[in-house]
Design a protein that fits this description.
alpha+beta, Protein Transport Mog1p, Chain A, 60s Ribosomal Protein L30, Chain: A, 2 domains, elongated
Length: 276
Amino acid sequence: MIKKISLVCSTLVVVLSAPLAFAAKPDKSDHPLLAPYAGSKVYSKDVKQYDEYRVFKGWDKEAKQYNTEMLEGKVTKILYKNPPERSILELYRNYENALTNEGVTVLYQCNQANKECVDGYVGAHLRQQFGINAIGNKDGRYLFARLDQEAQTAFLVLAVGAQNTDVHVVEMKKMDTGQVGLNLAALTEDLDRQGYVVVEGIYFDTDKTTLKPTSDAAISEVAKLLEGRAGLNLYVVGHTDMQGSLAHNMQLSEGRAAAVVASLVSRHGIAADRLT
C-alpha cells in the first residue's frame, strides 16, 4: 500500500482569538534602530515576530528578473508621512548619514529619478512585489543595508519618496519553536481517511534543501507511523513558496523530499524501498 505524504516546508502560524471589550490603540511607535526624520508621522505599522521578508536588490535588465534575497526574522514595516517642505534628497541624506554613523553597511541603493530602481511602472513592481509604497514612477531613493550588532544582525530597507518614507527592519532572531505538536493519532486518521497527509513542522534553510534541527520532531512522528505499519509505503512530496522559476522550484521540491527520505532512512532505520 502506497500513500502520499505531503510536506509543507514553511512555518505554521496558529492564530488564537477571543472577544475583547475594547480595541487596542494602533502602535505608532518608531523602531529603536532607526528614528525618523523630525516631523515625520507614522501612517501605518506592521510587526511580525517571525516571518519571511523578500528584499529588493535591483532589476537585472539582461536576465529580466529581480535581484532578491530572502530573509527570516522579526519583521517591522513602518510607513511614515514626510514633513512638509523637505525634499527627497534632504530626507534621504539625513537617513543615510545617520545609518553610516552607526556603522551600517550599505548593500544596495538606487535613485528612481534616473530609473535605477525600476524601469517601468513602480506600482506593479516595488509596491506589489515588495511592499515598498513611498517611491513614485519618476522619483524616490532606495537603500538596503546591514547592521551587525553583538547580540544579532539586522537588515534595514529605506525608501524615501516625495510624500512618504518606508522603513523596514528585519532582525535575525531565532523562531519560537515547540509551539505546535504533531499528533500521531491525527496523522494516522488523516492518512486513512484521505490517502495522504500534510505534515507541518518540517523546515529548511531558505532556498536550500538542508533540513533545520527544528524538523526533528515532525520527522520522528512520521517514522513512528511507518514503524507501526509494516505494510505502509509512502510517496513523499515537498512544497515550496514558488519564488523564482518553475524549474527551480521543481528541483527544490524534489531535493527537499529527498532530504526527508534520507533522514528517515539514515536516522530512523526506515527501509529505503518503503519511501518514494
